[in-house]
TrEMBL record:
It is found in: Cell membrane. Keywords: Cell membrane, G-protein coupled receptor, Membrane, Olfaction, Receptor, Sensory transduction, Transducer, Transmembrane, Transmembrane helix. One of its GO terms (molecular function) is G protein-coupled receptor activity. The lineage of its organism: Eukaryota, Metazoa, Chordata, Craniata, Vertebrata. This is Olfactory receptor 14K1. PROSITE patterns: G_PROTEIN_RECEP_F1_1, G_PROTEIN_RECEP_F1_2.
Length: 206
């Protein structure tokens, strides 16, 4: 659960850069976003997530459990594991979590900066059709970014309790299931064939 989120953050950042180049520098898109550069972006995303995942897993293996090691969670997340581990300094865990948070925040800032330039360029477009097309390209990606970060933030900043609670399990399920469930739906809705089929279905329902 550490490898995949961190890798996805990197991929979402690469996608925002792709849209930045396509909208702000369309004439240079072919030269900048070459096949080699795209492969490099994906490799960096997966390797960064993999490195953080290995560091986190190694830190977890060093933990000792004084009592029950049963976790009342949907997956083995950091707060849940630390609750059942022995009360001691977790330097390795703190370092791995700090690196993960720093990596995610830097990617989020990069995404936001990219969209500041993108919206600035879009608003300067004279054609309404061009602006509409640019926004339709960016909105699905922004929805995916929003669902990913908002569910993650909601899961990690919720009030903690000493006793296992249903709300903790619910938040962890939402964080794990919501982004991968809605991502394909969000992107598929841009497909004209799917839009046409959906409109026909809605007309039949009415």
């Amino acid at each position: 659960m550490v490898l995949l989120p961190e890798s996805e953050v990197g991929i979402l950042t690469a996608m925002s850069y792709d849209r930045y180049v396509a909208i702000c520098h369309p004439l240079h898109y072919g030269a900048v976003m070459s096949k080699r550069f795209c492969v490099l972006l994906m490799a960096v995303s997966w390797l960064s997530g993999g490195a953080l995942g290995i560091l986190f897993s190694a830190a977890m293996l060093s933990l000792e459990f004084c009592g029950s090691n049963r976790i009342h969670q949907f997956f083995c997340d950091v707060p849940a594991i630390l609750e059942v581990s022995c009360p001691e300094e977790h330097a390795a865990i703190n370092v791995s979590v700090a690196l993960g948070v720093l990596y995610s925040l830097s990617c989020l800032v990069s995404i936001l900066v990219s969209y500041v330039f993108i919206f600035s360029s879009v608003l300067k477009m004279p054609s309404r059709e061009s602006r509409s097309k640019a926004f339709s390209t960016c909105v699905p990606h922004l929805m995916v970014v929003g669902s990913f970060f908002l569910t993650g933030i909601a899961d990690y900043v919720k009030p903690t309790s000493n006793e296992p609670a249903l709300i903790d399990l619910l938040f962890s399920i939402i964080y794990s299931v919501t982004p991968p469930f809605f991502n394909p739906i969000i992107y598929c809705l841009r497909n004209r064939d799917i839009q046409s089929a959906l409109n026909k279905f809605l007309r039949k329902v009415k």
